[in-house]
Design goal:
The chain is an all-alpha fold. It contains 17 helices and 2 strands. Helices cover 74% and strands 1% of the residues. It catalyses: L-phenylalanine(in) = L-phenylalanine(out); L-isoleucine(in) = L-isoleucine(out); L-methionine(in) = L-methionine(out); L-leucine(in) = L-leucine(out).
Length: 363
């Protein structure tokens, strides 16, 4: 049975801390694709595409000595493209569903999708020659499940009032910093732990995310402070109107109607120039980052070999440079809370100025 909103409010700090940890381990982990690509090639995914006739393009890029070639990279990068597309493009339908059903069912479904993706990668690594095609579905579920966890966690700041921007920045920072997860997992993989065992353990972690959501997340959505204030005003107005009706007075205050008229229509907000320009710039930035992550390993190979086909970079070289990008993403977890704190601080100043102006008008 789902907890009530009052119970969830009492557990809000637990939910916020666990949401940050869950975002770090299970949200946008595909951003660390460079390290996962090396592990998948090390397990022999699509190595059957590297025929014996392509000896000049075939290398042993992983400790397990599976052959590696351009065709293999193209197929695996295609799976990353599909997964990263779902990681970004699913936000609009998720927003519609969350407005309709709340964050709880989406978070439960997202954790299940992420766990299933880990199970599929683990199972397909037993026979990669036959089951390599499952990696497409596994990466798709990974991206979709990750964005479900990220998107639902963005509603948590509504329960923190004046600290909402700080908590929101923590959620966004943990989402971006999840790129360090696969480089960290690769360190465990290089230490000798099997890829299959790692994925099964990761699926178990996703099951804990499901259990935490089932125990602590309410069925209703988290109301914003403005919505809570409107509900209080509406209930107070209804109480006043009922008292006036009981005393025979017929005058009614149209506060709710005025609020409805003063609110900006959704269509006007969507088609505003600042929103459209933000949509274009953010889309271009996201596309550029995804392209860079998909082509990063090949770019590193070219920089090391200077385009000479007979020279191939070592496994250690690729492993080191592929982990640099994910490690640098940890800076987001440090800088985002600082930005959020500054935003909360400035918003408090604006509220104080507005209250001062209202008092001056009344006097």
């Amino acid at each position: 049975m789902a907890p009530s909103l009052s119970q969830a409010y009492r557990r809000r700090w637990w939910m916020a801390v666990t949401a940050v940890l869950e975002n770090l381990s299970c949200s946008a982990v595909l951003l660390g694709w460079g390290s996962l690509l090396i592990m998948l090639k090390g397990q022999g995914f699509y190595s059957h595409l590297c025929t014996e006739n392509e000896t000049e393009n075939v290398t042993a890029s992983a400790p397990d000595d599976w052959p590696s070639c351009v065709n293999q990279d193209e197929m695996l990068n295609l799976g990353f493209t599909i997964g990263s597309f779902l990681l970004s493009a699913a936000t609009l339908p998720l927003g519609i569903l969350m407005d309709r059903f709340g964050p709880r069912p989406l978070r439960l479904g997202g954790s299940l999708c992420f766990a299933l993706s880990c199970v599929m990668m683990s199972i397909s690594s037993y026979h990669p020659e036959v089951l390599s095609e499952l990696i497409f579905l596994a990466l798709s579920l990974n991206g979709f499940g990750g964005i479900c966890l990220t998107f639902t966690s963005l509603t948590l700041p509504n329960m923190f009032g004046s600290l909402s921007s700080t908590v929101l920045s923590l959620m966004i920072g943990s989402y971006a910093s999840s790129a360090v997860t696969f480089p960290g997992v690769k360190l465990i993989y290089d230490a000798g732990v099997s890829f299959t065992l790692i994925m099964w353990m990761w699926a178990g972690l996703a099951a804990l995310v499901f259990l935490n959501c089932f125990m602590n997340w309410p069925a209703e959505g988290f109301a914003t402070p403005e919505e809570i204030e409107k509900k209080k005003m509406h209930s107070a107005e209804n109480h006043k109107l009922s008292a006036e009706e009981a005393t025979g007075e017929t005058e009614k205050l149209p506060a709710v109607a005025q609020d409805a008229q003063s609110s900006v229509p959704f269509r006007r907000s969507v088609f505003s120039p600042i929103f459209l320009w933000s949509l274009v710039t953010m889309g271009m930035t996201q596309l550029r980052i995804i392209f860079f992550m998909g082509a990063m390993n090949k770019m590193v190979e070219f920089l090391v070999t200077h385009g000479e086909e007979h020279r191939k970079p070592s496994y250690q070289t690729l492993s080191f440079y592929s982990s640099v990008f994910g490690t640098l993403q940890l800076l987001c977890l440090v800088t985002c809370p600082l930005i959020g704190y500054i935003m909360d601080w400035k918003m408090k100043e604006c509220e104080v100025d507005q209250k001062t102006e209202r008092r001056g008008e009344k006097e």
